[in-house]
Amino acid sequence: MVSASQFCDLLKKNGFNFCTGVPCTILKDIILCLSSDSDLPYIPATREDEAMGIATGSYLAGKQPIVMMQNSGLGSSINPLASLDILYRIPMLLLISWRGYQGKDAPEHLIMGEAMLKLLDALGIPHQVISEDNPEAAISASVRTMRERGIPTAAILKSGIVQ
Amino acid sequence: MKRFDAIRAAVQALDGNELLISSNGMISRELITVRDSPQNFYMLGSMGLASSIGLGLAISLPNAQIVVMEGDGNILMNMGSIATIGHFAPKNLIQIVLDNECHDSTGGQPTVSNTARLEEVAQASGYRMAARATTEAEVGKVVRQSLGEGPAFILVKVEKGNVKGIARVLHSPEEIRSRFQQAVRLLSG
Hints:
Chain A is built from 6 helices and 6 strands; from the N terminus they run αβαβαβαβαβαβ. Chain A has helices spanning 4-13, 28-34, 48-60, 74-85, 107-123, 135-149; strands spanning 18-21, 42-44, 65-70, 93-97, 127-129, 153-157. Chain A has a 6-stranded parallel sheet, sandwiched between helices. Chain B has helices spanning 3-13, 26-34, 50-60, 72-76, 80-88, 118-124, 136-146, 173-188, and strands at 19-22, 40-42, 66-71, 93-99, 102-103, 109-110, 129-133, 152-157. Chains A and B meet through α3 and α4 of A and α3, α5 and α8 of B.
């Protein structure tokens, strides 16, 4: 377990300097932490696909962006991923919360909870599940893959890891 | 007014230092016919996201002028973007909506922009400037007035249908991206 501020420092240490997205309870402390951080500003989007567009613009401007979302928002992000960010090779970190993990959640999260990794695989998006004992290793591995491949790379965050 | 003539009038009103984002379909094709430039980011897919890409650029490059060109079908897919742009209110963002009241590229199916007053939505969302243009002269005038005075929402009423002799975007997506990044670096000095 890490604190939200430690986790945000980890993101900044890995070169991220622009963040946008749509909240999730699992991400709430991270977003709160970023709301007063000018080194890694957070721009709230109305939808996850809008966030993908904003992040793409920031990347073209020379920033290294993160898009945060609940895994429900992966559904809204599939077209921008396929026809913008993978197509044009726009690297960014997708920090996706894992609702519906192991089938233990509210009913609206169960189908996406089960399908998420398969959807990412089907799109060819590399992903790392952030482990409780070593969040730093998962972020570093995601960043390495993102830079090597030059495409969006997902880091998956389960409940209870960032407090 | 033809959409092609509106795009040409807008481009002619610019200084040449702007970064342009054009939405997928005929708008990118008409822009490349008017003037191809590394400063143009031609979208091939991700319909609806032109204004969002423009916002990400405008926030990140406060000293650059960003111009978005998109259709009514595009902005109707991403109305939330108007609220976000109005909130962050970047002075360096101009959004030109070429409104032919239909999805022309897929056979002219009607949109609902004949009843939705999109420029009023922009105004109510906090844009500093929201205007409607119906002639090439008006397009040029409003674009010039909007430079550095954004966010500006310029609704341009255009006819349905295409003009002849329009080029295709033959650059690969990666080429569009890398030369645009190069143009950003040159402009940022």
